[in-house]
């Protein structure tokens, strides 16, 4: 999956807006959608909806009204933009982040960016948004993407606005009190309030993008204040760290310790820049302006690191504040996760009877892992309930969070089986169409005549007969068959290319693109699901290869109209990179184990569950609590469906 990024804070957005505003002065907008090839990050005007791709048409007013209505009733503002393709940057995630920066979007501002021709989209949220990464991801996949597949552009925006207003996936809650946690929470809250107030004071007044260039004096004052406030925030966080360790233990507090260390590094870099500004050497105005901007970027990054971890402990304290209700909620969610396992197991058995083990590598262990994680979740929930009754509310909150994550991962593992089944079926369909296309090439070779063409046609027809049989046989590997078909196609294509008309070549290229894209999308999604499910044990190499695959797939999607041959090459490269990522991730998980662990916490609680516990907590403490803002996605058009009222 694409590397997820947290949207930078307001100060970073302010600095980025300066250069973006200057850039906007020299950009010349296209006159019509047909002339558009790419769009840089866009600037919203008075409307939260921007349709640079021209796809909304008469539905624009309906979409705008729905988006405004959703914001009015929820205080969560969605911004929607449709462009042709993402460009400058071409990465969907960075494009969305820079658009948010350009428009000075705040904590409760959400952005749905859709590249219509590039078939990419991203639903973006700030790090401190009330909807967490899981909610954003589910809205993307379960709400937005089905509409995009039908090219129902208005429906996607309206559904996204409604889902965001409703808080994403509903969760059960409750009320109650637990008096034993109050003393610890008050101590922690006293310190955290200092950090939050410092950060929020910096954020006031930065809701608008920097449409005008600030003076050097303004930058000097802003940078000086930022240095002082960030330094205060780091000092307050160091005090808070002690409270966090006392409440939740060293293991849970370790990410906070790392965040403080990172914030200190940013702060040191910022002070070094300030020293350069204060020395006796004469600096140009542009140098001073650039260094002030870097100071603001460093202080903002320091604040973001601290705020992300502060949010993780706010989440734990929220769980701690109403343990009986949270224990009951997680018990219900684990029941729902349990109910998802049996259908996933049945689906996997059908897949195993149809496809080769090599085609199911990414989900081979999903059912057993889902059961293990469900078991871990249930046992951890029992431990959390025991800790709650014993007054160890910090341990209980950690247990509830771990059980919640275990239930979520159980559901993800189960859903991945169904997704893989859909992907393999799509590849089968594209293979069948590809075989027909290559058969047409063989027929063309026969019609053209000549010994060389006739011999090539006979070889191709023999290969195609074998492929047709293999495509219907049990134990097949669609990816391997696709590779064989590509080789056969290349051979026959070479001998008839010179005799084929330009129109025939264009049709053939389009058929090749769809086959290559379907294979690449399936492989990238399989690698994404595997790495997402086993993220506690997957190293950086596999993640890097997956990021490469995602970028190559995005390139293929953007080139499919303008450069069909380049699109096919990029899609094939994406397939290879995704396969390499999956192979490395498998090696990480099966070779190195999950790593991590769960040491004793306050009150003597010790870890249990072995590698699985380390895996789940590795995701919770190392990634899930420090929420991500969303992922970039691609979708495959579904022209069989149309928008429903």
TrEMBL record:
Instruction: Answer yes or no on keyword Magnesium.
Output: no
TM region positions: 178-199
Coiled coil region boundaries = none
Please report the organism this UniProt entry assigns to the protein: Agromyces seonyuensis
| Gene3D superfamilies documented for this protein | 3.10.310.50
The region annotated as signal peptide is 1-34
Print the keywords alphabetically. Answer: Membrane, Signal, Transmembrane, Transmembrane helix
- Classification lineage: Bacteria, Bacillati, Actinomycetota, Actinomycetes, Micrococcales
**Domain TPM: residue ranges:** 49-166
Query: What is the protein's name according to its record?
Result: TPM domain-containing protein
Q: One short Pfam family name for this protein?
A: TPM_phosphatase
């Amino acid at each position: 999956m694409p590397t997820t990024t947290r949207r930078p804070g307001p100060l970073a957005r302010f600095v980025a807006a300066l250069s973006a505003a200057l850039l906007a002065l020299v950009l010349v907008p296209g006159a019509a959608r047909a002339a558009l090839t790419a769009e840089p990050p866009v600037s919203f005007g008075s409307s939260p909806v921007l349709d640079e791709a021209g796809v909304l048409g008469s539905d624009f007013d309906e979409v705008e009204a729905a988006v405004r209505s959703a914001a009015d009733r929820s205080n969560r503002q969605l911004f929607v933009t449709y462009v042709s393709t993402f460009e400058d940057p071409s990465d969907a995630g960075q494009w969305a982040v820079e658009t948010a920066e350009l428009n000075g979007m705040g904590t409760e501002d959400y952005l749905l960016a859709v590249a219509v021709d590039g078939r990419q989209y991203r639903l973006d949220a700030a790090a401190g948004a009330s909807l967490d990464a899981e909610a954003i991801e589910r809205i993307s996949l379960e709400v937005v993407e089905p509409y995009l597949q039908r090219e129902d552009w208005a429906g996607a925006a309206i559904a996204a606005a409604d889902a965001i207003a409703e808080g994403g996936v509903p969760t059960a809650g409750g009320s109650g009190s637990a008096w034993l946690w109050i003393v610890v929470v008050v101590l922690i809250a006293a310190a955290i309030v200092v950090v939050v107030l410092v950060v929020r004071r910096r954020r006031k007044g930065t809701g608008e993008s920097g449409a005008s260039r600030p003076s050097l004096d303004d930058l000097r004052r802003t940078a000086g204040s930022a240095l002082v406030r960030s330094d205060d925030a780091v000092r307050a966080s160091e005090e808070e760290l002690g409270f966090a360790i006392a409440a939740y233990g060293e293991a849970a507090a370790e990410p906070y310790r790392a965040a403080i260390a990172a914030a200190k590094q940013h702060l040191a870099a910022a002070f070094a820049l300030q020293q350069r500004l204060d020395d006796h050497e004469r600096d140009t105005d542009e140098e001073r302006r650039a260094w002030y901007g870097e100071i603001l970027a460093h202080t903002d990054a320091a604040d973001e690191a601290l705020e992300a971890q502060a949010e993780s402990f706010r989440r734990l304290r929220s769980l701690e504040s109403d343990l009986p209700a949270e224990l009951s909620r997680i018990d219900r969610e684990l029941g729902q996760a349990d109910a998802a396992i049996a259908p996933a197991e049945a689906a996997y058995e059908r897949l195993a009877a149809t496809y080769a083990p090599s085609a199911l590598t990414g989900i081979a262990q999903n059912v057993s892992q889902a059961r293990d994680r469900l078991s871990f979740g249930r046992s951890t929930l029992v431990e959390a309930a025991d800790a709650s009754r014993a007054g160890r509310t910090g341990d209980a909150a950690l247990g509830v969070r771990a059980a919640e994550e275990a239930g979520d991962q159980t559901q993800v593992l189960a859903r991945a089986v169904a997704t893989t089944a859909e992907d393999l079926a799509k590849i089968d369909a594209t293979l069948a169409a590809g075989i027909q296309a290559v058969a047409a090439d063989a027929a063309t070779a026969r019609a053209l005549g000549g010994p060389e063409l006739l011999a090539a046609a006979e070889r191709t027809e023999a290969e195609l007969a074998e492929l047709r049989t293999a495509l219907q046989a049990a134990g097949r590997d669609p990816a391997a068959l696709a590779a064989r078909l590509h080789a056969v196609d290349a051979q026959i294509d070479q001998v008839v290319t010179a005799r084929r008309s330009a129109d025939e070549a264009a049709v053939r290229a389009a058929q090749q693109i769809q086959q290559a894209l379907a294979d690449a999308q399936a492989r990238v999604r399989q690698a994404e699901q595997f790495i997402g499910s086993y993220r506690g044990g997957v190293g950086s190499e596999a993640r890097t290869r997956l990021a490469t695959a995602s970028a190559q797939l995005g390139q293929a999607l953007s080139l499919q109209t303008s450069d069909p041959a380049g699109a096919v090459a990029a899609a094939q490269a994406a397939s290879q990179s995704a396969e390499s990522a999956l192979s490395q991730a498998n090696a990480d998980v099966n070779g190195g184990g999950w790593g991590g662990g769960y040491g004793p916490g306050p009150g003597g609680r010790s870890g249990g569950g072995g590698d699985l516990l380390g895996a789940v907590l590795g995701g919770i403490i190392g990634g899930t609590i420090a929420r991500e803002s969303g992922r970039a996605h691609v979708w495959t058009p579904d022209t069989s469906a149309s928008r429903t009222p």
